[in-house]
Write a structure and sequence with these properties.
The protein is built from six helices and twelve strands. It is an alpha+beta fold. The strands form three sheets. It has a four-stranded antiparallel sheet with strand order 1-5-3-2. Strand 2 and strand 3 form a beta hairpin.
Length: 274
């Protein structure tokens, strides 16, 4: 693989410059960390609080590391309990930042706010969980997101940069639906990567921001794009996510291989309360 492709994939998965912890790293001044309620089940949430803080409910340590380093969970390698041990966290910086309502931020402001939040979370993980990591490069099966033969079926957004950018996915009775507003193709690739547990590389060449709705059969999400067709199941079960991407968005996922940067956990401990 050409060096430029390796660099592109590494940058895509968010590791550039995120591993360093300079002396003036942003930090949370106050942080409450507690084991999550075992009765919470699958419900979890991660939200920012006014002033630059976070409120996290029922999040695994692997999810926290993934967010802090801007990678997908399959890019984090460490002990098995990273998935099973969950925490509730409420953290605030020493001096609350004078941040505009996120609904009023443009894309550049949202990116800056997210980067500052990730930096504080990395510092919290190092201090309270004794987290140390290093990165490795491994070859992974990946999907390339490309434009299908007949071209894209996407509505390009004409709203200003200050308009909200959002993606939501809902599942009900085996049916899944994704609704997107003003998202670039890279964001779609990231969402698909999390859904399919495999890196998805944006190779569409599309540079706009798009609105769309896509529906598929949730329990067929793992069927690869090169597997048997779903024509016999179309009437009763609906399309797989791979078929839906092609038929409803005019895009296609192609199986290939690529080098992906991995976060390897060298040391980590379960946090004591507060």
């Amino acid at each position: 693989m050409p060096i430029r492709s390796v660099v592109r994939i590494a940058a895509l998965y968010g590791l550039a410059a995120s591993l360093a912890q300079p002396a003036d790293t942003l930090k949370f001044e106050v942080a409450s960390i507690k084991p999550a309620d075992p009765g919470a089940g699958g419900h979890s949430s991660f939200r920012s609080v006014p002033g630059g803080g976070i409120q996290v409910t029922n999040y695994s340590l692997k999810q926290l590391i993934s967010f802090a380093y801007d990678v997908r969970d399959f890019q984090v390698s460490g002990p098995g309990w990273l998935d099973s041990t969950r925490y509730d966290i409420l953290a605030k910086p020493e001096h609350e930042e004078d941040l505009a309502d996120i609904r009023q931020m443009n894309d550049a402001q949202k990116k800056t706010a997210s980067e500052r939040l990730r930096e504080r979370l990395r510092a919290l993980l190092a201090e309270r969980f004794q987290l140390t990591i290093h990165q490795e490069t491994k070859e992974f099966p990946v999907y390339a997101l490309v434009v299908a033969k007949n071209g894209p079926k996407l509505e390009e957004s004409t709203e200003p940069d200050s308009a909200n950018q959002s993606t939501s996915t809902n599942s009900n009775n085996g049916k899944a639906e994704m609704t997107a507003k003003r998202i670039p193709m890279q964001s779609l690739a990231n969402v698909l990567s999390s859904r399919l547990s495999r890196p998805v590389l944006d190779r569409t060449g599309l540079t706009g921001k798009y609105n769309f709705k896509m529906q598929w059969t949730a329990d067929m999400s793992a069927r690869g794009p090169d597997g048997p067709g779903d024509a016999n199941l179309a009437d009763s079960a609906g399309p797989s996510i791979f078929t839906a991407i092609q038929e409803q968005l005019g895009l296609k996922l192609e199986s290939t291989k690529g080098l992906v940067e991995i976060i390897v956990v060298d040391r980590v401990e379960k946090a004591s309360e507060n």
